[in-house]
Amino acid sequence: MVKILKAAVAFAVCALTFNAGAALFEDDEARRAILDLRQKVDISQQRLNEDGRKAGEENAQLRRSLLDLSNQIEMLRSEMATMRGQNEQLTRTVADMQRNQKDLTQGVDDRLRKFEPGKVTVDGREFAAEPAEKQEFELALATLRKGDFAAAQTSFLGFINRYPQSGYRTSALFWLANAQYALRDYRSAVTNFRALVAADPDHLRAPEALLSSANCQVELKDAKSARKTLEDLVKAYPQSEAASVAKERLSKLK
Questions:
Q1: Pick from 145, 143, 120: which is nearest to 131 by CA?
Q2: How wide is the angle at C-alpha 169 spanned by C-alphas 167 and 173, nearest 5°?
Q3: Distance in angstroms (rounded) separating the CA atoms of residues 153 and 189
Q4: Contact by Cβ (8 Å): 170, 203
Q5: Alpha-carbon 224 to chain mean position
Q6: Could you tell me where the DSSP H helices lie in the chain?
């Protein structure tokens, strides 16, 4: 019995010793597991911290990039506004230049036009005349109408000499002869009246020139020549007013 009891006690001691060792072994495993877990947590935390730091740096870089981009956009807007202003100024400058060019061209055209031949109509005849030619004829005619017959004669003689091929020539001959008639230079007047008819028998003033020529011949006491001139007038221009007057004078001319 005693032996059995000793054996039981010994077994119990062994069991306790085994259980204590087993418990100690389990504590070490748990401790190592905890340490491993803590290490993993620390590593994860470090990674999270590193990731957070990197994310913060990236966010900061992104903010700087966005700020730079915003500044660049603002600079572009400013440059575009400047360019728009310059473009508007350039547009105004070009418009001013075009307007000035147009005015200059118009001015040149106007000045050139003063020297270019233009169409004129005198005594039913249309022809081209230079501005100076037209002006000189009109001045001579104005002088005649003022009653300054001597000056008018000089002006028309000078005009005919300067412009022998002028479309004004036959009209100038007519008014020259009228000035000479007024000055009682009847022979010169007859010469120029007849020169008109010879140069341009279809001229509007031709019948009147023949009638005036007959008047000059009457003043010269050359009734025979006057009658011949009046007869020529009636024959050449029977429908003219001058022909009607010529018929009346023929009936009175002896």
A1: 120
A2: 150
A3: 10
A4: yes
A5: 70
A6: 2-113, 131-145, 149-162, 169-182, 186-199, 206-219, 223-236, 241-252
Instruction: Measure the CA–CA gap between 188 and 113, rounded to whole angstroms.
Output: 37
Distance from C-alpha of 212 to C-alpha of 224, rounded to nearest angstrom: 15
pLDDT digits (tens, 9 = 90+) for 112-166: 555 577 999 999 999 999 999 999 999 999 999 999 999 999 999 999 999 999 9
One-letter identity of residue 7? A
Helical (H) or strand (E) element with 121: strand 118-122
- Sorted by sequence, the CB contacts under 8 Å of residue 120 that are 6+ apart come out as 126, 127, 128, 129, 134, 167
Q: What are phi and psi of 200, to 5 degrees?
A: -150, 80
Amino acid identity at 245: V
What is the phi/psi pair of residue 122, to 5°? -135, 130
Q: At what angle do helices 169-182 and 149-162 cross, to 10 degrees?
A: 150
Q: Residue 134 and residue 115: Cα distance in Å, rounded?
A: 11
Q: Which of 223, 194, 186 is nearest to 210 (CA)?
A: 194
What single-letter DSSP state applies at residue 203? Answer: S
Beta strands 125-129 and 118-122, pairing class: antiparallel
pTM of the model: 0.58
pLDDT of residue 54: 80
